[in-house]
Write a structure and sequence with these properties.
Its EC number is 3.2.1.-. The chain is an alpha/beta fold and 399 residues long. The chain has 11 helices and 16 strands. The structure holds 2-acetamido-2-deoxy-beta-D-glucopyranose (4 copies).
């Protein structure tokens, strides 16, 4: 009942458009611990890889040293398993003092001193997915705690909760975050737990939101997520825009499960889908090829296009898919992919077939290498070859 009372306070004040925190005007970029480091709390036997202040400090250092910060990666995001399993006597969340001996505030200061931002993780229910304290009944207190620590982003998961509480509960947390006066990017897991999410309501409370299952370090996982986005059965793609983005989950580039082509595929797809670019990898030991993909400025520019429009799949024929994303200046990002097979696929189609109908034509540039492809009228055909699991990503600039 307590929550329902808060609801009337929260959203009657600003029901028209609850979220105006100025954040995520383009998809946020950074690093997030979950996929790579999970809930490893064994700092005795695995001090370099356990969830601890040292891990996040190391990643902040690497974001700067490795050139990631220079191309836009900005958030260092703590995920599950950072606190003690019990709140203190006054109900406050406490970072595990063995693993975070300096405390979260000091970690935030460190991350800020590098010109970066610190994100943290909580849960809408009674417990986090890993069994740590959830924010149910503590939303205001937790929002204030996070703000007092200098937190810049909150991912609010949905384990151990009542799904029917989410439509009013997630906006309540947004209300309390707003009340702190500190701009805190709000990442909601709400739709991922809901069969028929009200995406309009979600976009009015959340900056980004997870729609689908957690990503795993495998091609099956990446391709499953992309299929969910391509099918767009719940009609969520058009909801994206500046300040509000669908989140297909972390980039796993630089880990173990994807081939080189599949890593290019994930980067290109996340660019076309206007997805948050949160890497979950070990920045201390990155294969050079993976690093080059993550640092590719041309692909990042597509992802960060200021219009913030999410791309859609417009053709799916066997293993071949074509996706398009409107970009500023009447340009269009076009992604051709081949998501299977054993031999190089040949694709030939007229620009009109992919919705490029401007009579004066288009100047096509391959995005990864910035290579000029040609000038095409809409009725002219484009012929390309795509290797299995690779992509051909082009920017079509209207002439
Ligand atoms: C709180 O919400 C108001 C109204 O939407 C907005 O103007 C303000 O910038 C928000 N403040 C923060 C810190 O998010
Ligand atoms: C999806 O949303 C758009 C924009 O609100 C609307 O025009 C369209 O009819 C919706 N499609 C379906 C299948 O609900
Ligand atoms: C077409 O794009 C290339 C870059 O790929 C650029 O160098 C060239 O000037 C452009 N041509 C026209 C006519 O816009
Ligand atoms: C394409 O359209 C132009 C006029 O825009 C026309 O001159 C040309 O013949 C057409 N080419 C083909 C292959 O149909």
């Amino acid at each position: 009942m307590k929550i329902i009372v808060y609801f009337t306070v929260a959203c009657s004040l600003a029901f028209v458009d609850c979220l105006e925190n100025g954040l995520a005007r383009t998809p946020p970029m950074g690093w997030l611990s979950w996929e790579r480091f999970r809930c490893n709390i064994d700092c005795v036997n695995d001090p370099d890889n356990c969830i601890s202040e040292n891990l996040y400090k190391a990643m902040a250092d690497e974001l700067v040293k490795g050139g990631y910060k220079d191309v836009g990666y900005e958030y260092v995001n703590i995920d599950d398993c950072w606190p003690l399993v019990n709140r203190d006597a006054k109900g406050f969340l406490v970072a595990d003092p063995k693993r975070f001996p300096s405390g979260i505030k000091a970690l935030a200061d460190y991350v800020h001193s590098k010109g970066l931002k610190l994100g943290i993780y909580g849960d809408f229910g009674t417990k986090t997915c890993g069994g740590y304290p959830g924010s149910k009944f503590y939303m205001e207190q937790d929002a204030n705690t996070f703000a007092s620590w200098g937190i810049d982003s909150l991912k609010l998961d949905g384990c151990y909760s009542r799904i029917e509480d989410m439509p009013f509960g997630y906006p309540i947390m947004e209300f309390y975050l707003n009340q702190t006066g500190r701009p805190i990017l709000y990442s909601c897991s709400w739709p991922a737990y809901t069969a028929t999410p009200d995406y309009k309501a979600i976009a009015n409370s959340c900056n980004i939101w997870r729609n689908y299952d957690d990503i795993q370090d495998s091609w099956d996982s990446v391709s499953g997520i992309v299929e969910f986005y391509g099918a767009n059965k719940l009609n969520f793609s058009h909801i994206a825009g500046p300040g509000r983005f669908n989140d297909p989950d972390m980039l796993i580039i630089g880990n173990f499960g994807l081939s080189h082509n599949q890593q290019r595929y994930q980067m290109a797809m996340w660019a076309i889908m206007a997805s948050p670019l949160y890497m979950s990898n070990d920045l201390r030991r990155m294969p050079e090829e993976s690093k080059a993909i993550l640092l590719n400025k041309n692909v990042i520019a597509i992802n960060q296009d200021p219009l913030g429009v999410q791309g859609n799949r417009i053709i799916k024929q066997g293993d071949i898919e074509v996706w398009t994303r409107p970009l500023q200046g009447n340009s269009v990002g076009v992604l051709f992919s081949c998501i299977g097979g054993a031999t190089t696929a040949q694709v030939k189609l007229a620009l009109t077939n992919i919705g490029l109908t401007n009579p004066s034509g288009y100047n096509l540039t391959e995005v990864f290498e910035g290579r000029f492809v040609g000038i095409f009228k809409p009725n002219e055909s484009l012929s390309i070859s795509i290797d299995p699991y690779d992509v051909f990503l082009v920017k079509a600039a209207q002439l």
